[in-house]
Amino acid sequence: MNVWFVGATALLVGLVPVAWVLIRGDILEALVALQLAGTVVAIVLLLIGEELRRRADLRPLHGQSRAVTTTLDYALYVLVGIGVTAELVACVGLLAMGRAIDRLHYASAATGIGPAFIAAAVCTREGVVSAQGLAAILIAVVLAVAGGTLGLAVARIVRLRTHGTLEPSAAERERGG
Predict the structure, then answer these.
(1) Number of structural domains in the chain
(2) Does 82 have pLDDT greater than 80?
(3) Most buried among 35, 69, 106, 110, by the most CB within 10 A?
(4) Concatenated DSSP letters of 98-112
(5) Which residue in 136, 9, 3 sits closest to 69, CA to CA?
């Protein structure tokens, strides 16, 4: 096991609270949970793909392990750890919040923070101009843009379902909302 598989395994376990909200919540909460689940699964696939990539010139012979842990290894541990932790906080936060709009904040944060750190880890390992590095950056950008767009659309749906209109109420206008 290494940092890529450990991160992927932790994120798969983190899908348990997301699945709980998906199954037990109302339709709006389930939509928010589905948004977060899509982001987490995309990151899991990125982590697994990064590890399963075959580079014979960098792999030790069967039965032998690398004796030295380099600074690059520590940097990868930190970047993957921060990215996975951000996603796990979003998964737990989704379960802890009571309303769909509050849960949406955690789901939206997960589309930007975690993917950025995972992409940084891939770029640190492979290089920014490598195929893997560029693919990781593209995935992080697509998740951030699509997640923000989807978050805005879900917020509008939540507003329509809870208030019946997108217009602010008199109390909201008074306090500047």
Answers:
(1) 1
(2) yes
(3) 110
(4) -SHHHHHHHHHHHTT
(5) 3
40 in any annotated domain: yes
Is residue 67 a part of any domain in this protein? no
**What per-residue confidence (pLDDT) applies to 54?**
55
Would you say residue 87 lies in a domain? Answer: yes
* 14, 88 contact by CB (below 8 A): yes
Q: Which domain holds residue 170?
A: 3-55+72-175
Does the residue 102 lie in any domain? yes
Confidence (pTM): 0.81
**DSSP per-residue string spanning 21-80:** HHHHS-HHHHHHHHHHHHHHHHHHHHHHHHHH---TTTSPPTT-------HHHHHHHHHH
What one-letter code names the amino acid at 109? A
Q: Contact 36/91 with Cβ under 8 angstroms?
A: yes
pLDDT for 89 beyond 90: yes
What the block records as the tokens of 25 is 């919540």
Pairwise CA distance, residues 112 & 144, whole Å: 5
Residues 41, 123 contacting (CB under 8 angstroms): no
Residue 49 dihedral angles phi and psi, to the nearest 5°? -60, -35
Mean pLDDT of 40-64: 73
